[in-house]
């Protein structure tokens, strides 16, 4: 096990664990147990291949890995949709009336649902966005995943994740949940979606969740809609 500086707590000379860009539990949900080759299909800029390979790197110490598991992954992963048709997270959301229905979209205020652990969901999502920003990950021998550039917000996200810091200023998090039944088994690595009016938008997707991170780098120029969403998530 190599030693180095943990990207989370910044301690030097510690044992670095084999960290996953996307949690290991996601790969188990993507395979096809009854198929001759049960492994998921990996699509890169160089090739399309069916493989058991997972995207990993020696990035975090044991303590920081445990923080990601305990404060986000451990709650979210068991609630994701399965091939058998169960989707507990969808059940938790739809057990209560929606807070908004408009143009075919149904919206729920997470903080008003006592069964929805908003902080765990937020910690889970920001952990993946942050890992994509602090290291250049490889999806294959010659294929690299473009590193997200979160600018000055990267440090605020790190302290939120690993140092009990406050939710970072000037960012928001939106989560979209697919309706049931979920039939498409796919995951998309974190990427920069678009840039508009000084706000940078990043996203990643599991087959049933689309996580969207609007981030403003200019501080005072933060659009009102994004600022409102940030306050709602923090509640």
Describe the protein in words:
- This protein has helices spanning 24-30, 62-76, 88-94, 118-134, 153-162, 224-234; strands at 3-4, 14-15, 18-20, 41-43, 48-50, 56-58, 100-102, 105-107, 138-140, 143-144, 174-177, 187-196, 199-206, 209-216.
- It is globular.
- Helix 2 (62-76) crosses helix 4 (118-134) and helix 4 (118-134) crosses helix 5.
- It has 235 residues and is of the alpha+beta class.
- The longest helix has 17 residues, at 118-134.
- It has a 4-stranded antiparallel beta sheet. Strands 1-2 form a two-stranded antiparallel ribbon.
- The protein has one domain (3-234).
- The chain contains 6 helices and 14 strands.
- A hairpin with a 2-residue loop joins strand 12 and strand 13 (199-206).
Distance between the termini: 40 Å
Name the shape in a single word: globular
Q: Give the rounded overall mean pLDDT.
A: 81
Helix and strand sequence:
EEEHEEEHHEEHEEHEEEEH
Uncertain stretches: 218-235
Largest sheet composition = 4 strands, antiparallel
Number of domains: 1
Number of helices: 6
Number of strands: 14
Give the helix/strand layout.
Elements: E1 3-4, E2 14-15, E3 18-20, H1 24-30, E4 41-43, E5 48-50, E6 56-58, H2 62-76, H3 88-94, E7 100-102, E8 105-107, H4 118-134, E9 138-140, E10 143-144, H5 153-162, E11 174-177, E12 187-196, E13 199-206, E14 209-216, H6 224-234
Antiparallel strand pairs: 1-2, 3-6, 4-5, 7-8, 9-10, 11-14, 12-13, 13-14
């Amino acid at each position: 096990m190599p030693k180095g500086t943990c990207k989370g707590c910044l301690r030097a000379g510690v044992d670095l664990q084999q960290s996953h860009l996307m949690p290991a539990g996601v790969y188990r949900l993507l395979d096809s147990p009854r198929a001759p080759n049960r492994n998921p299909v990996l699509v890169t800029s160089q090739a399309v291949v069916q493989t058991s390979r997972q995207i990993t790197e020696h990035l975090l110490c044991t303590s920081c890995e445990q923080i990601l598991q305990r404060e986000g992954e451990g709650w979210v992963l068991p609630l994701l949709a399965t091939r058998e048709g169960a989707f507990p997270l969808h059940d938790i959301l739809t057990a209560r009336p929606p807070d908004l229905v408009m143009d075919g979209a149904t919206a729920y205020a997470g903080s008003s649902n006592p069964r929805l652990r908003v902080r765990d969901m937020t910690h889970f999502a920001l952990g993946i966005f942050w890992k994509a920003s602090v290291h250049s990950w490889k999806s294959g021998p010659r294929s690299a995943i473009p590193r997200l550039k979160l600018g000055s917000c990267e440090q605020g996200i790190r302290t939120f994740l690993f140092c009990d810091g406050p939710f970072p200023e000037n960012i928001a998090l939106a989560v979209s949940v697919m309706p049931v039944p979920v039939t498409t088994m796919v995951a998309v690595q974190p990427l920069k979606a678009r840039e508009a009016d000084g706000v940078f938008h990043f996203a990643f997707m599991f087959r049933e969740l689309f996580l969207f991170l609007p981030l403003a780098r200019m501080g005072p120029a933060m659009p009102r809609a994004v600022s409102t969403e940030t306050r709602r998530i923090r509640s």
